[in-house]
Write a structure and sequence with these properties.
The protein is α+β, with helices and mostly antiparallel strands. The protein is built from 25 helices and 12 strands. It has helices at residues 3-12, 48-63, 85-95, 104-107, 111-125, 133-138, 151-160, 173-180, 182-214, 220-226, 250-256, 262-292, 300-311, 324-362, 367-401, 406-434, 463-503, 511-520, 529-545, 554-576, 590-613, 616-626, 643-647, 686-716, 722-748, and strands spanning 36-41, 66-72, 76-83, 144-147, 232-233, 244-245, 441-442, 445-446, 448-449, 453-454, 648-652, 670-674. The strands form 5 sheets. A 4-stranded antiparallel sheet has the order 2-3-1-4, with helices on both faces. A two-stranded antiparallel sheet has the order 5-6.
């Protein structure tokens, strides 16, 4: 029977069981040998042009050593694809040195995952440009392609890994590697190590936070605020009808002191050291794992070139290219997107201003808190929307660059997407930490939006409270809602697909076809499925380190979230999603540079939060320069006596244009506000400039001190263990020694 006729008979048969088409020298003899399955709608078989395209595609695969088998149900046609032994032999020939064929490199060679990787690559790149598998899907010739979950490894991972009950059990990294490849295994290895290292950070952060309770009622500053019944604060909003007594902020002052105390500075330095130690020890752990997998000297470029040659022997090498014009265009477009992200922050500012005006007319108490809470929720919604936009934009910019290989594309995409995501997530936090309340002018002469609405100000107890609330809400929502959506969306989608299949009777009694249908009804995956998981963790790592001085509970929240995240990702990958392509890797790639960048940003941001957002510097300056202990160096809590009065500026109420609108406060002649201004022309006082100089000095010293600690820690902890270096050295020696012996025997002959 001719090949075309066989194909037509197989596709046109009305039975559920179709015979295996014989091709090449290797005949698969077990149902679990089919690695990749193509799907087409049964209706396409009535269109001759589509059938010809399918036949052409499969014949091309067959001529290059691949095998296929056709099965169908009432609605779909399934084409099982498998690489023959000749393809695997070619892969060995291209990548494995002759002397390695009998060494441990051969023992660590995973034929199953290698075959799946080859099949996936060839199917997606089989045809000529403009007529790829993706184009065939767009034309309706094929519907999709998926890899098969199968074998004892799947069942083992379901029992030992992809269960909620195993949340606190060690991960079977070796089994994950054998089933999903080294890239997924490295992700879960990194995630597990990150979670483990969060334990000391969470404990220290919790101690710092709880230590504030020791000063909850005994703090000198809190005592002064709680007893300041005769000090009236100037109104914050345009709609406020009363001067608020400072003593009314007693509770907020005590709460602010929970995370704005001397322990904050020590914790920020600790987290800078923690981030460095975490990365350095991770590098060592990664080196050990990769050496065990015999991938320490593996070259990703060689792997991709080998796959290209297997796909097409006529493949011509694509060389590195660089265009200043395209780089300039990409830079301009990236800057435009960054400006858009900053614009989103301004939209949030406008919302907070308008919300402040609205809430002031509805309630006079807790206006600032209501604005901060609703603003954080709005910011979270903006983040969700802009994440989808940023992903599309980053992908378009990456394609415009025309990267040489998939790994290069992934690296460029990572950098662009992370930059956009960073501004989307942290723009409002930067605004609250360093801008909010600092461009508002002063009572009687306030800066207004569009000349109408007064800009919002920090809570009367300070901006640290606003930053704490913003961090708590955004991080809390991301760790709860995002995880719920991440789990429930694929779960419900999978259930719906199964229900539709059972409802329409799209099930088969044939074990092989039934297994293919089971995999088909799982949720689809794409090349960036693992990328999304990495990005989610990078953003969390940013929240855990960058503004941790204002939110010492961040590591604790991240720790709880990661226990859930590990099992959630495992359940998705094994039970709800189709199988990911098992890719090789010897490190986490560009993500390591992202982690190092976040570490540097964390030092800078935390230093600035302590200097400009918290009250640490003004308290220290008062204690040593202005307070009662400046001559008597006892330095106790009494050294902060009268600090509150010193830190509040004076404003004469007669300078308000509408002082008469204040109800029941006609006798108030002076109100106070948080700033360092004189009471004559309300310009900045000498104390303001002196404290500003100390703030800037502290930032410089803090950053240099923290960065020196990071550099010393990085030097003290080598990236690669000596045992790994010695193993690599031994392998090189044995390889050269074998070559010398082989050369000597050849000479003797």
């Amino acid at each position: 029977m001719q090949r075309n006729e066989s194909f037509q008979i197989l596709v046109g048969s009305e039975g559920d069981h179709l015979p295996l088409m014989e091709m090449g020298s290797c005949k698969p003899d077990a149902s679990d040998q089919w690695d990749c399955v193509l799907v087409a709608d049964l209706q396409t078989q009535k269109i001759q042009k589509h059938v010809q395209k399918q036949r052409q595609f499969l014949e091309t695969l067959e001529s290059n050593g691949f095998h296929f088998k056709v099965l169908k149900d009432q609605k779909k046609v399934f084409f099982g694809i498998r690489a023959g032994s000749s393809v695997i032999d070619m892969y060995r020939t291209l990548l494995m040195k002759p002397e390695d064929l009998s060494s441990k490199a051969k023992q660590s060679f995973n034929i199953a995952t290698t075959r799946i990787r080859i099949v996936s690559f060839v199917v997606n790149n089989r045809m000529r440009p403009g007529d790829t598998f993706e184009d065939l899907v767009k034309d309706g010739i094929f519907e999709t392609m998926f890899l098969l979950h199968k074998g004892e490894e799947e069942q083992h991972l379901k029992k030992t890994w992809a269960r909620w009950r195993n949340m606190f059990q060690p991960q079977p990294i070796d089994t994950i590697r054998e089933y999903f490849g080294e890239k997924v295994a490295l992700y879960f290895t990194w995630l597990g190590w990150y979670t483990y290292m969060l334990v000391p950070a969470a404990v220290v952060g919790l101690i710092v936070f709880l230590s504030g309770f020791a000063l909850f009622n005994s703090s000198q500053i809190s005592k002064e605020i709680c007893s300041a019944h005769d000090i009236f604060m100037c109104p914050l909003g345009d709609h406020s009808r009363r001067y608020q007594r400072l003593s009314e902020m007693c509770t907020f002052a005590k709460l602010t002191h929970l995370f704005d105390n001397e322990g904050t500075v020590l914790f920020a330095i600790f987290m800078a050291l923690w981030a460095t130690v975490f990365l350095e020890i991770w590098k060592r752990k990664r080196a050990r794992e990769v050496q065990m997998w015999n991938l320490y000297e593996w070259d990703e470029e060689e792997e991709e070139m080998a796959l290209e040659l297997i796909n097409s022997p006529r493949y011509e090498l694509k060389k590195h290219r660089h265009s200043y014009l395209s780089s300039t265009i990409i830079l301009i477009l990236s800057l435009f997107m960054i400006c858009l992200m900053i614009g989103m922050a301004h939209v949030l500012v406008v919302y907070r201003v308008l919300a402040g005006a609205l809430f002031s007319s509805l309630m006079e108490q807790q206006v600032t808190t209501a604005v901060v809470v609703t603003g954080a929720v709005v910011h979270y919604v903006i983040i969700v929307i802009m994440t989808k936009v940023n992903k599309c934009v980053a992908l378009k910019l990456c394609k415009f660059e025309e990267p040489r290989t998939f790994s290069e594309q992934e690296s460029k995409f990572t950098v662009k997407f992370f930059i956009l995501q960073f501004f989307a997530h942290f723009s409002s936090l930067i605004y609250i930490a360093f801008i909010l309340g600092r461009i508002n002018g002063h009572p009687g002469k306030s800066t207004r939006l569009a000349g109408l609405w007064k800009l919002e100000e920090c809570h009367l107890s300070g901006c640290m409270m606003d930053l704490f609330i913003q961090m708590a809400i955004i991080m809390g929502l991301k760790q709860t809602l995002s995880n719920c959506v991440e789990y429930l969306r694929p779960l419900l989608a999978h259930k719906c697909r199964l229900m539709r299949a059972y409802k329409h009777g799209h099930t088969s009694e044939d074990p092989e076809l039934k297994e293919w249908q089971r995999n088909y009804h799982m949720n689809p995956v794409n090349t960036f499925s693992l990328f999304d998981e990495f990005m989610e963790m990078m953003i969390q790592y940013g929240f855990t380190t960058i503004f941790v001085a204002a939110f010492p509970l961040a590591p604790l929240l991240a720790l709880f979230s990661n226990f859930v995240e590990i099992r959630l990702d495992a359940i998705k990958m094994i039970r709800l999603q189709r199988r990911l392509v098992p890719r090789k890797a010897k490190d986490i790639g560009t993500w390591l540079q992202v982690l190092e960048t976040i570490g540097v940003l964390a030092v800078i941001a935390n230093g600035m939060v302590i200097a400009f957002t918290s009250e640490f510097i003004p308290r220290v300056v008062y204690k040593y320069h202005y307070g009662p202990c400046r001559t008597n160096h006892t330095f106790t809590d009494d050294c902060l006596k009268d600090y509150v009065n010193h830190s509040l500026s004076v404003f004469y109420t007669k300078h308000f244009k509408d002082h008469g609108r204040m109800e029941g406060q006609e006798n108030v002649t002076v109100c106070r506000y948080r700033d360092y201004r004189n009471d004559i022309d309300y310009n900045f006082s000498e104390q303001f400039w002196f404290i500003l100089a100390i703030r800037l000095t502290f930032v410089i010293l803090f950053e240099h001190f923290a960065l020196c600690i990071k550099l010393i820690a990085a030097w003290f902890v080598p990236d690669v263990p000596q045992s790994v270096k010695n193993d690599v050295l031994t392998d090189k020696y044995e390889r050269i020694h074998r070559r010398m012996c082989f050369s000597s025997r050849s000479t003797d002959v």
